Amino acid sequence: MTPYTADNGGKVYYLAEGTQTAAEMYASAKAGAKAITWILRVVGFAMMWIGLAMMLGPISILADCIPCIGPLLGDLVEGVVCCITFPIAMFFTLVTIAIAWLAYRPQYGIPMLVVAFAIVGGIWYNKSRKQAAKGAEANDNGEGAEMTAMTRV
Fold first, then answer.
1. Confidence label for 35 from pLDDT (cuts 50, 70 and 90)
2. How many angstroms from the chain centroid is the CA of residue 89?
3. Is the pLDDT of residue 148 over 70?
4. Which 3 state secondary structure label does DSSP give 53?
5. Which of 127, 53, 57 is nearest to 89 (CA)?
6. How many CA atoms does the CB half-sphere of 46 hold within 13 Å?
7. Cα–Cα nearest to 52, from 80, 88, 77
8. Kind and range of the H or E run holding 5
9. What residues does each domain of the chain span?
10. Are 63 and 92 in contact (CB under 8 A)?
11. Residues 60-109: pLDDT tens digits?
């Protein structure tokens, strides 16, 4: 029995049933590792999402305590929390995977970090631009004139 020599020169020892060539065994092991990697990524994302949702869970419990409309309001808050935590969990998962890639393949890790932070930066920029436009619109209508005069005094 001889080890398979990978493209990078490393030796791979793998044992499988049946008659297979070294290249077939290596391809099988590589496919299995790829499947496990994706399963762990999805499980990690799900755990991140569930964890973030559980951290904000007390908010829905507080909404449940309101008489008459509490259960309805609590369910609504749970849905909003779910929608808010999804992109946050996606960002943290992407950053975690990118940091792991930095150690092994920086050519993949660095672009992943850039994309993750570009998405967050784009969201932040869009939000601040909308707030600035809303503030300018309020000033055009004269709504903010009293506040501006009060801050100058």
1. very high
2. 4
3. no
4. helix
5. 53
6. 6
7. 88
8. strand 4-5
9. 33-139
10. no
11. 888 888 888 878 888 898 999 999 999 999 999 999 999 998 988 899 99
